[in-house]
Every structure is written in structure tokens, then in C-alpha cells.
Amino acid sequence: MNREGEGLRIWTEEPVRLRDYFRRLGADAEIVASADASYVVVTKSEVDVDEQVTSWSTINGIEATVDQAPRPARVMELQRPRPRLGDLLLNKGMITEAQLAEGLRESQVTGGLLGRILLRRQWIFEDELARSLAQQLHLPYVNLRNAGIDYALARMLPVETGVRFAVIPIGVHRGCVRVAFADPCDDGAFEAVARSIDDFEPVVAELTDIETAWRTVTRRYQAA
User: Fold this and answer.
1) Residue 199 belongs to what domain range?
2) What is the C-alpha to C-alpha distance for residues 137 and 127, in angstroms, rounded to an integer?
3) How many domains, in total, are found in the chain?
4) Of the N and C termini of the chain, which has fewer Cβ atoms inside 10 Å?
């Protein structure tokens, strides 16, 4: 155990692989997202953690350090103030002023996300929306159907939050948790994610893919 009594912390570029390795050894291992990076916490282990970390690191050629200070964060932050989704789509000529006004009215009445409303009314297309957002905001676009997600990592965020704001943690990139957003212009979505994950890298994905991923997460945990 470390001095804080919270288990041994292990810093690595591949926390998911290391976590799964220790779980196979019968240890309790979880990924924690800190303000600086993501790390693995190992508790209740019957094996020599330092020895196993050294062995895993040597075999896989991946650096791992036990209970050391976090590495500098490599988080891609959006420049503030971010444009609102409606303004961005209007400026790009993807919707009309009348469509935006009607979409905003429905959003205010129902509490639904503007992006969902515009998609349901078929005024925009999902791939067009996601790629335009990624290009405009200088964020990576991720096709979740091709890239896949780490379903265990997705549970860092409450399902209700992920579904409501159309966001989902999908993996770890260079030691930082990647979170896919259907609408990265939504401050509410960013604030909701930040309550569960201190430090994350936003990327853009299609709304339907995020919703499908959450349904898969729910089924997996209901079946467990």
C-alpha cells in the first residue's frame, strides 16, 4: 500500500492493458483519471506488484512506474468561448435561421439536445454534423463503429449522464481518457463529464454510435 493508503498507483501509457493484466492475476485493479493523467490503482493483491509491473513492462515494452508523480497531461482543450452548435451550423449554411429558431424552441420546451432535434427532423445528417464539428473545433473525429470502445472504461461515466448528454469514454490515448461527444459545443456536457473525469481529451463521434454504445454497455452490465 502507498502512504495515502489508497493502494499502489501505477503510471503507464497503457492503463487498460495493465489493469486487465492485474485482474487476471486476481488483484483488484481500477483505472483512475486524475487532473494530470490516468493511472492504475491495485489493491488486495496477493502478488508482488513491483515485480509484476517490472515483468509486464519488460515483456510488453511499455514503460510503467509504481507510485510516482503523474506525467504531464496531454489533454486537447477546446478554446473558449466555444461556438454554439446552432450558430456553427447556421454559419456553415447547413441549416436556415427558421430551422434553427424552431429547433431551439423545441429544445427549450422539451429539454432535448438541439443536435438530436435537428437530426430527427432530418435537417442535417449525422456524419455531416460530426465531421463539421470536428473540423470547426479542431478535434479528432472518431468513427466508433470502426474504432470500437473500451466498455469497462465507459463506466467511468454514469450511464444516465452519458445518455442524456450524448457522451461516452471510449479509451485511453497517450495516458489520457478520450471522451466522445456528439455535441462538443455543449457546455453542460463538458461540465457533466468533468464531474466524473478530472482530465480528458474530447473527440467527436456520431450521435447514433454513442447511443448504440451505451445500450451495449447497459446490456453487458445487466448480464454480468
Assistant:
1) 85-223
2) 15
3) 2
4) C
